[in-house]
Design brief:
Elements (H helix, E strand, L loop, with lengths): L2 H12 L4 H9 L3 H26 L9 E4 L5 E3 H17 L3 E4 L6 E2 L5 E9 L10 E9 L16 E7 L3 E6 L5 E5 L6 E5 L10 E3 L10 H11 L11 E2 L5 H11 L2 E4 L12 E2 H14 L3 E3 L16 E2 L1 E4 L1 H13 L5
């Protein structure tokens, strides 16, 4: 590509503006809005540093080296702990009142006054070094001394977003006024907006699920998949494609770009009765973004944003994506067919 063509491409993307400009304009004179903007900018500052470490792979030591386990017994890798420490340091400086991280037993309390942040510093860390997208996902929640902000229903969120570290470093976020997508410029580290007011198609023929768990699924979900896999000769009357990254952030980014439906449902295995994804810092921010983009997010039958967490690290089943398909999955689950 010629230098002039490259410059033209830069100008095309620049016309959408930068995330920093967007947040500065959105924050205006409001104290609360300025606090939210500062926290999002803090996440992006940390994400820029984290992206460099991920890109370096094993050149700077093994980021996937096992060094312990978190409070729920999940293995912790070196990059899990390092990314946790990075985000905690920067979010404290950015003015967070409390921070709940997947890698900490309990919320960390700081001197901020307005908002708490729930964060999974590096979702999908098992894929580090394999080229599969990994990501950071976060939720910003109004804070008051009178109650634990992380034990409130997800509909109280003020903002949410994610950063996906793949072949590009991509951001998706919302402050309650639609979903914006941005990409980090590899030379400057600036996040440039590439799409505003993202809308997920209501209909889809693309599924994301772990097919190896098929035999453990509830009868209603098994019947749904049976009808999908039958293709155009079956009850659905069309063929379906399957996509499975094993990274919730990667699946979320793809669905925001092109539609689709993802599910990690409750199943019959011990320890999976309530699903596996975390409600507060995974399912809630995903559901907030789905709502803002015209999609849907449920635990199979009930809206994620209506669920009240029972603990900081509680789990939930999660179905999200194109609204028609999410609703159809709920109807299959509610039908409660008997298993064969």
């Amino acid at each position: 590509m010629s230098a002039s063509a490259s410059l033209a491409n830069d100008q095309t993307h620049a016309q959408f503006g930068s995330v920093d400009e967007y947040l500065s304009k959105w924050a205006g004179e409001g104290t609360a809005r300025r606090s939210v903007a500062a926290l999002i900018n803090g996440v992006l500052d940390a994400a820029c540093l984290l992206s460099e470490r991920i890109a370096a792979g094993s050149l700077e030591g093994d980021p996937a080296r096992l060094i312990g386990s978190n409070s729920d017994g999940d293995a912790q890798k070196a990059i899990d702990v390092a990314s946790h420490e990075l985000f905690i340091e920067i979010l404290e400086r950015a003015g967070a009142a409390w921070v709940l991280s997947e890698e900490a037993n309990a919320p960390l309390v700081f001197k901020g006054q307005h908002f708490a942040v729930a964060i999974d510093p590096i979702d999908g860390s098992g894929h580090v070094g394999l080229g599969t997208p990994v990501g950071t996902i976060f939720s910003i929640i109004p804070f008051s001394e009178a109650e634990d902000p992380f034990l409130a229903a997800g509909k109280r969120q003020a903002a949410a977003g994610y950063v996906s570290f793949g072949n590009t470093v991509d951001l998706g976020f919302s402050v309650g006024e639609g979903v914006l997508l941005a990409t980090m410029h590899p030379q400057t580290g600036e996040f440039l907006i590439v799409k505003r007011q993202v809308q997920i198609p209501r209909d889809t023929s693309e599924l994301a699920y772990n097919a190896s768990n098929h035999r453990h699924l509830q009868p209603g979900l098994s019947l749904y998949l049976q009808d999908c896999l039958a293709g155009k000769e079956g009850a659905r009357g069309r063929d379906f494609n399957m996509r499975w990254l094993g990274s919730a952030v990667g699946e979320l980014h793809r669905i925001l770009l092109r539609g689709g439906v993802f599910f990690y449902a409750a199943d019959k295995r011990p320890g999976y009765e309530n699903g596996r994804l975390r409600l507060v810092y995974e399912a809630n921010p995903i559901a907030f973004l789905m709502q803002q983009a015209g999609g849907r997010a449920t635990d199979g039958t009930s809206a994620i944003l209506d669920k009240v967490p029972t603990s900081h690290h509680c789990r939930t089943p999660l179905v999200f994506g194109s609204a028609t398909e999410v609703d159809l999955i709920a109807s299959y689950l509610n039908s409660n067919p008997t298993s064969e």
